TrEMBL record:
Belongs to the universal stress protein A family. It holds the Pfam family Usp. Residues 8-144 form the UspA domain. This is Nucleotide-binding universal stress protein, UspA family. InterPro entries: Rossmann-like_a/b/a_fold, Universal_stress_UspA, UspA. It comes from the Bacteria.
């Protein structure tokens, strides 16, 4: 784990929990002077369903971009006042895996992620993205509920 924070990165998925995480990440970035970055992952399972349903692989890139734009816009709308977002990062695959891999490739990332309110049984059997991330993250993670 890096001792030096280089950026505050908020994991976004368009949910209310992610919006709360975005607000906290923006406050943290402003208070510490670190750049704020938005990160989302276009789920690989969604890409597979789109291809099975008839979306051409060549159109999949456009679907990913539209997904990213919608999620990033939702996160920006949740921010209080003008906030300078330094970068928008759109990845594709398993969300937990991609977030952890991003952190491994970007030492010094302070990740802020929302925790969804799944039932106790579902969390025990499937786990959540935030739980998987905190188990495997190589750096600082703040969970916002």
């Amino acid at each position: 784990m890096s001792d030096t924070i280089s950026a505050v990165v908020v994991a976004c998925d368009g949910s209310e929990h992610a919006s709360r995480a975005a607000r906290m990440a923006a406050d943290l970035a402003k208070a510490t002077g670190h750049p704020l970055k938005l990160l989302t992952v276009f789920p690989g399972s969604r890409a597979e369903r789109l291809i099975i349903s008839g979306v051409w692989p060549s159109d999949l890139e456009q679907e990913q971009q539209e997904y990213g734009r919608k999620v990033f816009d939702t996160a920006k709308e949740a921010l209080d006042g003008p906030v300078d977002v330094k970068e928008e990062i759109l990845l594709k695959g398993d969300p937990a895996h991609e977030v952890v891999e991003y952190m491994e490739q970007n030492p010094g990332t302070h990740l802020v992620i929302g925790k969804r309110g799944h039932s106790a049984l579902r969390s025990l059997t499937l786990g959540s993205v935030s739980e998987k991330v905190i188990r495997h993250a190589p750096g600082l993670v703040t969970i916002v509920s």
